[in-house]
Amino acid sequence: MKRYMAIALSAALLTSPSLLPGSAMANSSTSDVIQPHLTTQSTLNSIPGFTDVSVHDPSVIKVGDTFYVFGSHLQVAKSKDLMNWEAVASGVTDNNPVVPNVTKEFGEALAWAQTDTLWAADVIQLADGKFYMYYNACKGDSPRSALGVAVADNIEGPYKDQGIVLKSGMWDQISEDGTIYDATKHPNVVDPDVFFDKDGKLWMVYGSYSGGIFILEMDETTGKPLPNQGYGKKLTGGNHSRIEAPYMQYSPETDYYYLFLSYGGLDAVGGYNIRVARSKTPDGPFYDAAGNDMIQVKADKDKPLFDDASIEPFGVKLMGNYLFQRQIGDPGTGQGIGYVSPGHNSAYVDPESGKHFLIFHSRFPGRGEQHEVRVHEMHMNADGWPTVSPYRYAGLDEASNAIPSTAVAGQYKWINHGKDISSAIKTSQNVVFSPNGQISGAVTGTWSLADGNQNQITLTADGVTYKGVLTYEWEPNLQREVLTFSALSSSGVAIWGSQEAGLTDQAVVDAVKKDLNIGDTHNIFFNMSLPTSGARDSKITWSSSNAAFLSNTGVVNRPRAGKGDAKITLTANITKGVATTTQKYMVTVPEQAKGPVLGEYQFDGSKLAKIAQDSSKNGYHGQAFHVESSVVGKKKNLVAAFNGQDSSVELPGLITDTTDFTFSGWVNWDGGDAWQRVFDFGNGLTRHMFLTPAQHNGALQFTIHNEGKDQSLIASQALPTNQWVHVAVTLKGDTGILYVDGQPVASSNEITFNPKDLHVTEAYLGKSRYAADPYFKGKMDQVSVYNKALTAKEIQRSAEKRPE
User: Fold this and answer.
1) How far apart are CA 403 and CA 636, in angstroms?
2) Pick the catalytic residue: 105, 122, 193, 244?
3) Which terminal Cβ of the chain has fewer Cβ within 10 Å, N or C?
4) Is 244 a catalytic residue?
């Protein structure tokens, strides 16, 4: 069983980072040198392994030796160790084995909710040995929902419907409590959790946004609500406050009922976070750590919907968005360990070991809406509140010997989860617990063991007190155990800490030097992002041998055309305390392209299948993929033929210095699906410009996209098919013009984005940067790109040189 210390921590909620004193981890042997005990305090038989699964809104039940989680969209998974999960079912389809023919079985609920999917399910086993699934369906853009129950003899089904037990969202009609439905007061009947209290009585807590969170007394024989309760008793929320996903867990250790809740929105930018309140009885009243009665927590009805500011101060926030950030020089790889929008949890207390577990889904930094199930262990602090271990559960068995104070001293990555509901990710800061009881870094203060009792530690800063737990956890990025703490303040703020290995200042700067990477420096067209900090608050400054072309801050000023490339030595100076080292990089800043023609492609080369020759002075030859030479006209002119499946030409960054711009070329389009590309120049999905022969409305369109906005030129119709057509786009100042056969078909004086601001690294002919878009099918010839806007007469002359 995991052994833990109770901690009493008091600290200021400081958020601004500060440098650690140079003596905190000095190179000399002094009394301030930190030498934390790095020997493991646990017995680890093997490296923990994990198999992940995606189940949104996981509700846990243990059957025999197996844990199951049931979630939204009829997703089900199972595990024997809470670490390695196996998918059982997914999807509200009639081939789902858990509820075969689900569209008919739960048809009444789906029809009422006007939806084709199901939300968060919950399963419990009752005295008859059967398994009762509480399913729910919601319209989504309103609280029109149905909550029902289905029964199975086996945990994995098949479940048979026993009918709807609650409905909501019946606008201007009588609701379940006999009054007209009011979404600010009445619940949205979703997110059920059915549980037994300590005396064996059955309850259901449920609700999401709308009128709040409610609880009902249940019939232990039928699994349905006892009669004449309406929607039951309200516990918290209302006025459309973003509070949902209630889950009740009784702890024999504290004799409290803990009501877990999720605040905010569930998507990656919704700020989802897990909170908790507690009561001595299952139906409340529930209070947070500051003594606030949760029945009073609701949104301000006089403010717009989903007013988060009204509810942010209430409830004990156990975790939100965070990242134990891996900095340059830190061990491991990647950006670090963290979550985005963790929430909709369930909980489990092991009856034999007494261990508490938190089971939830989470998204992750930089991974969009991808989500997976996570399990963390919880421990009760000295005030009887659950603290969540910072790292996922890894099945460690800790030794019984106490953690000595010398092991507590050391450097930590520190997270303060705050009380906000925000998409911002709380990144770790550096703090040091010195052996003499001082704390420095992002948080300053003192820590001490009370009366020599190694189970009690006090950290004071600005009079704020945190109480929590020390445990050894498995750090998956480092692939080793680390000492961690998780603690709560009396206002319900969680702080986490993860201890780092003790390093001298020289070891730190050496590690930063080894890890420092600024990418390919052979051809630098754009300003460089030069890092200025590394691990353990080390500093990185830069010096350039030729600041005229590359400044000490990474600003690039390319030599004029004909002046030759600039060869520069860029030096990184890395320091921490008195320790220092340097790293040198050879950088080439290419001369500007010779204009006005940046690239010219006649497609007459015999090697077109591999190379698209540039006949301009710049030699920007492209790489051709599955493009064939095709003969047209009496003069047997060679053109490029694109097959519409995998043909494209990839060009170098043609427009790196271009403010004004022209694309000119002949196109013979075979037609087909929308969003094919004549060209697509850009950098990733956030900065690019393209020309499509037909978009979703069937019109020729040029778009330049930057800063999250589109600026477009849209013709009245699609590009003609099965004939040679000359197309051109010009940009001059804020004016853009789209031409077909030498005649303007669209124009705008509001094209404020410049091509050079796109930092073009990928330039395609015949291919989109979006994988879902089709390839171009047809032919091209006489493609030219300019760093000036051709005049209307110049465009007309180009349109006279038909390939035929």
Assistant:
1) 85
2) 244
3) N
4) yes
